Amino acid sequence: MDLLNTLVEKGLRRELPSREEALAVLTTSDDDLLEVVAAAGKVRRQWFGRRVKLNYLVNLKSGLCPEDCSYCSQRLGSEAGILKYTWLKPDEASRAAAAGVAGGAKRVCLVASGRGPTDRDVDRVAKTIGAIKEQNADVEVCACLGLLSDGQAERLKAAGADAYNHNLNTSESTYGDITTTHTYADRVETVRHAQGAGLSACSGLIAGMGESDADLVDVVFALRALDPDSVPVNFLIPVEGTPLAGEWNLTPQRALRILAMVRFVCPDVEVRLAGGREVHLRTMQPLALHLVNSIFLGDYLTTEGQEGKADLDMIADAGFEVEGAGTTTLPEHRGGGGCASACAPSDSASSESAASAGAGAASARTDLVTVRRRGAGTDLAPNA
Predict the structure, then answer these.
(1) DSSP letters of 214-277?
(2) Which residues pair with 303 in a beta bridge?
(3) 332-383 tens-digit pLDDT
(4) Catalytic residue annotation
């Protein structure tokens, strides 16, 4: 297929595809799916070999968020039956993080619900980072605390944080449809705060919220221009009690096409398979390892993932290897934090309706959504 040959050549050169080419990946047929995966896999292996980086989430503060993000079970007005608790103490968070490291995680992601941290919150997280680093000096620590104010990113960096996560989630044009309490521009500004402080920026998207193909391409192109080091791709987990509980728009095949498109647009970036992989990819998860080079181990913030051992078995059975602590994740040329001039956006293309994007979705697998009842904030052992 000429399209795929072109995309592979551009990916190996770190050249940005056109919008038409990115859109075309999303509209390929199921009959061509393995060819799409194989082509994107060539780009993935060029920059990351067969390594898979493991990341582990620790939910420092769960629920009771004042923001109204429609996809989130912790949102204002959420009726989801999730765990709700205030800040974990540094030693509690450190123990939770240690379980993930023992399971093979190279990075620990510290997440707290809320619009953004107060200065006191930053102090609290700084102590938590210190406790984690004292126990596991080599582990990477990424903070995800919401919108940052001036100087907070620098304080997190000084405390030992390696990275900061703040996702764009969806296209700028549709952002107001999912959140009204802050703006898309607020999110972009926070990512830039993190980059300006010397933190490794992590910013990604959520697919499956009813967006069009054009929306998906828009947000991935925006991420390419923003140039984070890692791009997590989440697939909406439609939790009962949230406004998007009825959004079941994804098939395993579509999820794989989305991951392939992200890899072609962001060829040399850590593309992370994040929330929702078990729900939407299901038995096709191993194919995704040919597209991504990073996954979350174990559970998510408020829902459960598959068993940690099953993750490790899947990686081994698919012929991949867990990335060790002594291995640098990103290619050498990304050490400076910037990409080549090919980061400039390309020409535009027509949009596709959300209804078309979700056409052919399989029956909703609500049985695969399980609210987290173990790990951080409970007396039960974590899943790692």
Answers:
(1) HHHHHHHHHHHHH--SEEEEEE----TTSTTTT-----HHHHHHHHHHHHHHSTTSEEEE-TTH
(2) 371
(3) 999 733 333 333 333 333 333 333 334 444 567 677 788 888 888 888 888 8
(4) 65, 69, 72, 109, 142, 202, 272
